[in-house]
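Re: your question from the hallway

Yes, I did run it. Sequences:
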Amino acid sequence: MTRRDVSPATRFWMEFAENRLALAALMVVVLVVGAAVLSPIFAPQDPYDIGKLVLGDARRPPGFVGAGGYVHLLGTDAQGRDLWSAILYGLRISIQIGVTAGAVAFVVGGTLGAVAAFSGGRIEALIMRFIDLQLSFPAILLALVLSAVLGQGKWQLTAALVAAQYAYFARTTHGAAVAERAKDYIEAALSTPLSSRIVVFRHILPNCMPPLIVVATVQIANAISLEATLSFLGLGLPVTHPSLGMLIANGFQYMLSGRYWISIYPGVALIILILAINLVSDQIRDQLNPRLKR
Amino acid sequence: MLGFLIQRLLQAAAVMVVISALVFVGVFAIGNPIDVLIAPDAPQDIRLDTIARYGFDQPLWRQYLNFVSSLVLGNFGRSFVFNMPVLDLILSRLPATLELTLAALIGATAIGVPLGMYAGYRPHALGSRIVMGLSVLGFSVPTFWIGLLLIMAFAVELGWLPAGGRGDTVAVLGVQWSILTLNGWTHLLLPALTLSLFRMALMIRLTRAGMREAMMSDYVRFARAQGLSDGKVIFGHVLKNISIPLVTVFGLELAATLAFAVVTETIFSWPGLGKLIIDSIQSLDRPVMVAYLMLVAFLFIMINFTVDIAYAALDPRVRSGRS
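Structure:
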């Protein structure tokens, strides 16, 4: 099979697989997401079932055999939770929030950017000025204030993340759509009896996808990191359902006394996930950048 | 150039007005400050009196107008919690944040740009790959986590550096600085490093991307064809061209670093603005929140303004295109 016969998707995949590091990172992402989704099966303990927590088992080092009869591979936290289970469940919450926030921000921002690009004139100027204004503020500050306004909770936190991130999608969509709109094939499509809506959805938006995919992967990683940061600062999720950031925050106070594992292991899990996503998106970005084509 | 300046200044002023309204409405939605100000068992007449004194009984737009008019006079109100003028409170915390931010950003640039240039110049060398790997790591690891690891390693295990606080300070012109004492430096080192790793990764990647594109461009090919050495090509031509986005990012990151100092300051108990804003969010200290956000917005706009001007100075294309 030569390179010419294959579909663009297959060719993209083959090029991606050439980078071993990115391929390994992709496998890590799949594994971590899989483990997180199936955490009720993999986790030896349900960390949210307060009735099962034994306070006598609190803050035990890795390898401790607890009252439940099983080995706490990564030790236990201050409430006597099995850390390995808490990390799996925490990953699940973090991924859930990150992906939801990323997807909603994608739709909201993409729509706004596309509307701006196609309406032109005052509406475009209004939308894009506002987006620029928002982008000049760091996302963390916006998310911080918003989660203070909205209060604690999964949905409040997701909303704060969306509000902090949609602008990146809007700017990218707008830029790509304006560039596409000026090209000859769109002119050609518009000169046919096709309605402008069909031209937008069938021709322009699909061609805006490549940069958006890159932004989406980066933003999902960012959302997960932001969520952890907010939870670490005590502004994210309620204590009953600890995400990774909160596990780290809870362990922080014990770290100075040498009980490192409560903070360190959730952090390692978080970093592996974010690092793997970033490596994958790096490779996609390089592949989609026409200026680096050799 | 003058027309360009005036146009930018007007834009900045308009943006400031919009932001002040947004901030005011946003902060207004947070909690009920009456609960902070008055004990729940206070009699009704004291309650009403306090509400009237702080103007909470007036419609939102009137409260906003009052706020703006006192703002123009330089009056940000009093902190509910500290019971002192907000402006004094913020100004007393500003130097700590400023020295932390500047130390972090200057360090990140001084290390990141040369590394990025090397990685862009020799993209396939082993050293470049290591640099890029580290930059991905710096990008991926959340700031608070870096802080934890550094405390763990250098404060708990090795015991070389303190885990928090600002250390000894020296008063210069009535402002306390810790960069002027050795003890202050030992306190500054870990938080500054924490804050700078992300910016360093950003600088490395930007410089490398600019470098790679520049090395493939025609002007470099022609400069080489002229017989110039690579050193002359890079430092005489390429560096000038790639410095334009770097200046932008330095400016924008200055503001973003100020904002991210929130996290770093919380971890290292650094008594700066970031710790102040977290505390006031938790205690619903509205005047401090509003003033902090306005100050950050102002800084952002000033920095954006300066970046625009610097852009125009560095790149003649921008100057002629817009003015």
